[in-house]
Amino acid sequence: MKYITFIFLLAMTAQAAVAFSGHSFMTYRSQGCNLARSNSGWFNRCTDNTASLGVEYTRSFDAKSLANYYFGCDTHTISGSRVANRESGDILADYFGLPTDFKSTIHFSPSIRNIIADIDFYWLLGDCKKWNLRINVPVVHTAWSLNPCEQVVDRGTTDYPAGYMSSNGIFRSNLAESALPALSGSTTFGDVSLPLQYGRICCGEQRLTKFSDVLIALGRSMICTSDALLDVNLQVVIPTGTRSKAITLFEPQIGNGHHWALGVGLSSRYDLFNNDSFTLSAYLDANVQHLFKTTQKRSYDLIKNGAGSRYMLLSDIANRISIAQGFSPVPAQDLFNEQYITRLFYGADATTLDSKIKIDVQADIVAKLTATYCNWGLELGYNFWARSAEKLVCREHLKHKFYGVKGDAQLYGFIDAGSFIIPVPLNTTQSEATLHAGQGKGNTTDNFVNNNADNAALVYNVSIPLAQTTTGSLINTGATVLQQVNGSDQAIVISDADINNCSGLSPRALSHKLFGAVRYEFDTCYDAQPYLLLGAEGDFSGKTHCQKTAVSQWGVWIKGGFNY
């Protein structure tokens, strides 16, 4: 029993340490890339031209796997730096303008809904009808939501001391009531003068209507008999959908990410049994495409600071602008090499960059059996879809050379001049802080004196020691007594090499789909033969490196058309 309890506690500890995955983006399978739907009901490709319209409704399921892809798990604890017995996997509430004793949980249940109108034309060309042309134009309405739900456990009561988030103290009444307003880009506090601009976690549903990719395929029939077909084609995909703007974390996507694509296709059929009233046929269809480079915005984490570090606070630092001097008991003559210039912002607002991305190969393969009896048809099949990992061709560099990781550091030191207090911006950085905590043993539980700063050293203004805060901030903040504050000698600033390029890219993905459809062909006195079809599908994400990297979804469709 003791061993079982130990294993259970170890598992709980490991789970608590997980927060945020290494991904800020997932490339969604294009709504137009669905051979199961677009080729359903399409039987007589040797002899008939075809025009059709299919309308499909799809909805994602397995929300937990989607949440795991973006966040590491579907529920997170957000707690302040002074909460007793904080778990190592808790997200630091201080970054979102919340009290240092605040605590809440956020649950995510992502969902995607699509309504797709699939317009398809197929013409036989030439007198011998050996050539054919196909044009496929899907129109998509999509709705995406992370469905975040935050439950406040303890709203907290502590104030921010002067120097922590601004040169002035901030009362609890002026701090946020929950984390979601900051994460959705709707709140500011202290020196955070602009709300979160990129990677916002929206509370509501985001909707969009747009053409997806336009497929144009020129094919040639290699075999075309009454009981067999082999057709090959060359495909061009014209991007008419969306490209990533990275303003929201779970932004709606239509199409293939605005990539031009070039590929080849195969269509084949063989009749296993055929008589006057009943036919049993086997089909194999495949599209293989290369997606060319295109420019998108992507948000990146920092290598040393781990997954989700784009939601940490960065400090804006300028080079060789100084009020204070020295880092030793005897004041030095040289100025700070860097100094905070009173602006905080979220990491994503610095590390969201224009990026050129390509995808080497995407495959959409269908194998199915069809049975026709008189005017009725039934098809059952399997669809395999796969996409290689995104490749970063190039991206823009950081726009500024002096960004520092704030962590839980004091940003200002203070000179008590008797009748007034002089705040002095420091250059303190915490280059190894994470989304979960400040660097090392923490600062807010160590009287806010920056002992955990990079290259910590005491700060003087000429010969006057700088205090970590003001007398008025020794009440209800956790600061207990005025002490000399540390800065960084020298500060460690972020360079372009610190950006984790992989965090903004989608890994390879694959899915397995089972589908079926029932078709009825109407008798008419005309050359055109109309038909109506009802279909359904279940698409199941496969795993890449033990993680599901595609969206699991189900769909139903109705399709009408005519052969002529």
Short description:
This protein has 564 residues and is mostly beta strands. The protein is built from five helices and 31 strands.
Biggest sheet architecture: 12 strands, antiparallel, barrel
Distance between the termini: 74 Å
Choose one word for the global shape: elongated
Structural category is mainly beta
Q: Could you tell me the number of beta strands?
A: 31
Mean pLDDT, to the nearest integer, reads: 90
Helix count equals 5
Beta-strand share of residues: 35-45%
Radius of gyration: 30 Å
Strand neighbour order, sheet with most strands: 1-5-6-9-10-11-12-16-17-27-28-31
The helical percent reads under 10%
Total discrete domains: 1
Q: Give start-end ranges of low-pLDDT stretches.
A: 1-17, 321-335
What does this entry look like structurally?
With 564 residues, the chain is mainly β. The protein has one domain (2-563). It is built from five helices and 31 strands. It has helices spanning 2-16, 35-38, 63-71, 180-183, 348-351, and strands at 50-60, 75-79, 91-92, 103-107, 111-125, 131-145, 149-154, 206-211, 214-224, 228-238, 261-274, 278-299, 301-302, 313-319, 338-346, 352-373, 376-387, 390-395, 403-405, 412-416, 421-425, 456-458, 460-461, 464-465, 486-488, 499-500, 509-521, 529-541, 543-544, 547-548, 553-563. The radius of gyration is 30 Å and the shape is elongated.
Offer a few descriptive terms:
564 residues; mainly beta; twelve-stranded antiparallel barrel; four-stranded mixed sheet; 31 strands; 6% helix; 44% strand; disordered N terminus
